[in-house]
Write a structure and sequence with these properties.
Elements: H1 2-9, H2 12-17, E1 26-33, E2 41-47, E3 63-68, E4 74-80, E5 83-92, E6 101-102, E7 106-107, E8 110-113, H3 126-129, E9 131-133, E10 138-143
Parallel strand pairs: 1-10
Antiparallel strand pairs: 1-4, 2-3, 2-5, 5-8, 5-9, 6-7
């Protein structure tokens, strides 16, 4: 009988929280199409912050993955909360950790974006690459583009 009194003494929110299921998370599986070579690293970032897209550096909540290009047929972001996201992918062929450019603006390495967002005079806007993730796994393809 003593445990009933102990339970009654707990704050109501604590008792209720014990019965609330954890929020469901999903995965985003990305197939990488048209990768030019198996050299270097494929780097991908997933962000919900429009101001941080496509680099993701300003978003502390951004999810980043890096896999050897030779085994980059697909990459998976696991445990992602439902929401609106965009993905940017870089084929860092020389593995130096950055997007190399010729002259000032022309990318020397491959890149791609969710929803196959188009590029014209700079990267696409977040809204052009954004997709909505629900509670279930999402599969998509990102086509790599190479200018040089």
């Amino acid at each position: 009988m003593k445990w009933r009194y102990a339970l009654a003494a707990l704050p109501a929110g604590l008792v209720l929280a014990a019965n609330v299921p954890a929020p469901r998370t999903a995965g985003v599986e990305v197939r990488i199409d048209d990768l030019r070579s198996g050299k270097g690293v494929v780097r991908a970032c997933l962000t919900a912050d429009p101001d941080s897209f496509p680099k993701c550096n300003l978003d502390p909540a951004a999810r980043k993955l890096a896999v050897p290009a030779g085994s980059a047929d697909s990459i998976t972001f696991k445990g992602v909360q439902p929401g609106r996201y965009a993905i940017a992918v870089l084929h860092d062929e020389n593995g130096n950790g950055k997007a190399d450019r010729a002259i000032t603006m022309i990318p020397k390495e491959g890149f791609g974006f969710s929803r196959d967002a188009k590029v014209s005079f700079g990267p696409p806007k977040f809204d052009d690459a954004a997709f909505t993730l629900g509670a279930d796994k999402r599969e998509m393809a990102i086509r790599m583009r190479y200018i040089l």
